[in-house]
Write a structure and sequence with these properties.
Blueprint lengths: L19 H6 L9 H19 L8 H14 L5 E2 L1 E2 L11 E2 L7 H13 L4 H27 L2 H12 L14 H20 L4 H17 L6 H12 L11 H25 L5 H5 L19 H6 L2 H23 L5 H10 L4 H20 L1 H12 L4 H21 L5 H29 L9 H10 L8 E3 L2 H8 L3 E3 L4 H12 L3 E4 L9 H5 L7 E7 L2 E6 L3
Parallel strand pairs: 2-5, 4-5, 4-6
Antiparallel strand pairs: 1-3, 6-8, 7-8
Helix pairs in contact: 2-5, 2-6, 3-4, 3-20, 4-5, 5-6, 5-7, 5-17, 6-17, 6-18, 7-8, 8-9, 8-10, 9-10, 9-15, 13-15, 13-16, 14-17, 15-16, 17-18
């Protein structure tokens, strides 16, 4: 079908780059792509999540609850500690305990920055910097797109796709990692563009290492970006040395990574004796998603994993593959953008950045399908892929343009058609975004289905709970946010696990919501008065409340 304009040679990156700092300074090689253009993209990128936020008064789901609660701990001077526990995989036996032993801390740090700035611990304050970060993603995406085509209209289309991001739109402004990963991913590929022009600039290899470290500090799977950086350095090394790969890019990238991650690794060494917290490693041997909450965590072993049989292991991974392929098409590909992203990958397949983003997606898909299938299929693959979105939003209009150019060479269509199709692509993305936001925020209701924890806690106070007493609930960080009371998640493992965890953590009150009723405790929920050690106190907002007798 032929090559698109500004084909994928080294020369295609030669026109002056527009990194984010140049955007702020108002510098541009083309008068149309000036400060005003980028500023409007920034404003629109800020307005959309702020408008959506008016209908999101609470964090809305466990991840966002967790990072917001961690931010409160930091902002109020309590450091990296938690008076709540959302899973038991790190082996913790009491509260409070060291924080972020499974999820990484950067989103909580960013939440705390907003609270420090405003002097308040409200959810609106915690979201402040997430709004700003989300607003930088569209101009950054446009700048990245310009390095491919050197065409203003295509770059603006990419920036608009970053604003109307379909499945990501409800999440970029909440206390989670989506906007962080988008920002870091966009910056990563812009710096990679500079290194395609001049791979000898060691400062840029250092910056790639720093960005890899920031992604690792955001999410555990962000650690994958360091070997991806090494792979990119290996590709570019031939431009530095004619005979042997030059060690400097690898050293500078590793140094940048360690500048960010070494304080966290030192903290983990002091606490756990290893650079990595123990919670994540146990997730390798899960037999189902519910085992994320298993108690005691020592039940999860490689031996028990293998004992379930290879047929079950393979079936789980085939299920995860199906779910992740759907996520790749709908969430990463934005549904309508997917075929054009594929076309862009094909046309620019010789570009090192396109090779890198494709390999990154494939590695993420492999890790989230075969190593961590339950976490991957339940949202981790969607989360982790956010770092690649600026490249997908860049490649979609480029793929459309390449198809239209190829058709034009065959006498079909004209320049006006290209404008119409490009505008239609953006318009459809806008419509899909509005639909997804309406469905996620209004139809389904923003927030997972949790009982009214404030009402539950008032009920417990009326039934004699003391201020220092700990509660078991489906969403432990959410319970803490709503009541200020320490809480642990309901453990997986049946009534025995409930009683063992209650005794270990001195958590003698159980809030059992219908959504938390798994098969091992279904009879307890259906027949609340049938157990001697589970004293049924009553119902509040659909949740059944028990006091546990462990002696």
């Amino acid at each position: 079908m032929g090559d698109p304009p500004a084909a994928h040679s080294e020369r295609s990156c030669k026109p002056p780059l527009i990194p984010i700092l140049s955007i702020v300074a108002g510098q541009s090689p083309n008068p149309l792509m000036n400060f005003r253009t980028y500023f409007f993209l920034f404003l629109f990128g800020l307005a959309v999540p702020v408008i959506i936020a008016q209908f999101q008064p609470i964090p809305g789901y466990l991840d966002s609850d967790y990072y917001y609660a961690g931010g409160i701990q930091l902002a109020t001077g309590k450091g990296f500690t938690e008076p709540y526990l959302w899973n038991f995989l790190d082996g913790t036996t009491s509260l409070p305990h060291p924080s972020h032993s499974y999820w990484m801390p950067l989103a909580s740090i960013v939440s705390a920055l907003g609270m420090w700035l405003t002097g308040q611990t409200t959810f609106a304050s915690a979201r402040l910097f997430f709004f700003l970060i989300a607003a930088f993603v569209p101009p950054l995406t446009a700048a990245l797109a310009y390095t491919f085509s050197q065409k203003n209209d295509i770059a603006i289309a990419s920036g608009m796709l970053a604003i109307f991001s379909v499945y990501h739109a409800p999440f970029v402004g909440v206390t989670d990692n989506f906007s962080l990963f988008m920002l870091f991913g966009g910056l990563y590929f812009i710096i990679a563009t500079q290194l395609m022009q001049d791979p000898t600039r060691m400062r840029n290899w250092l910056l790639l290492g720093v960005l890899s470290g920031l992604m690792a500090l955001s999410r555990s799977d962000g650690l994958l970006w360091l070997p991806l950086t090494f792979l990119f350095a290996l590709w570019r090394a031939k431009k530095i040395s004619s005979f042997l790969p030059h060690p400097s890019p690898f050293i500078f990238a590793l140094l940048g990574f360690l500048l960010i991650m070494s304080p966290w690794y030192i903290r983990n060494l002091n606490l756990y004796g290893t650079p990595m917290a123990p919670g994540g490693s146990r997730a390798l041997w899960l037999e189902n998603y519910d085992q994320t909450f298993v108690y005691p965590p020592t039940l999860i072993t490689k031996e028990s994993f293998l004992a379930q049989g290879w047929d079950k292991i393979l079936d789980d991974r085939l299920w995860a593959m199906n779910m992740n392929l759907q996520s790749g098409f709908a969430a990463h590909g934005g549904i309508i953008l997917f075929p054009f992203i594929v076309a862009g990958i094909i046309y620019y397949r010789k570009d090192d950045r396109v090779k890198l983003v494709t390999i990154a997606w494939l590695i993420l898909f492999f890790v989230m399908t075969f190593l961590f299938p339950f976490a991957g299929a339940r949202g981790a693959f969607f989360h982790a892929g956010a770092a690649l979105q600026p490249m997908w939003w860049t490649l979609a209009p480029l793929g459309l343009e390449s198809i239209l150019v190829s058709l034009r060479k065959r006498g079909w269509g004209n320049d006006q058609n290209r404008v119409v199709f490009r505008s239609a692509l953006v318009m459809v993305a806008m419509i899909l975004t509005v639909y997804v936001v309406y469905l996620r925020v209004f139809t389904l209701g923003w927030g997972e289905i949790d009982a009214d924890y404030k009402a539950v806690d008032q009920f417990l106070v009326e039934h004699g709970i003391e201020e220092q007493d700990i509660v078991m609930a489906r969403n432990a960080p959410g319970y803490y946010l709503n009541t200020g009371r320490s809480a642990i998640s309901i453990p997986y493992g049946g009534e025995t696990a409930l009683l063992q965890a209650a005794q270990e953590f001195e958590a003698y009150y159980l809030v059992l919501e219908p959504e938390a009723v798994l098969d091992p405790i279904k009879d307890l929920f259906q027949n609340p008065d049938s157990r001697n050690k589970f004293v049924y106190l009553g119902d509040v907002d659909g949740a059944r409340i028990y006091k546990l007798e462990t002696k």
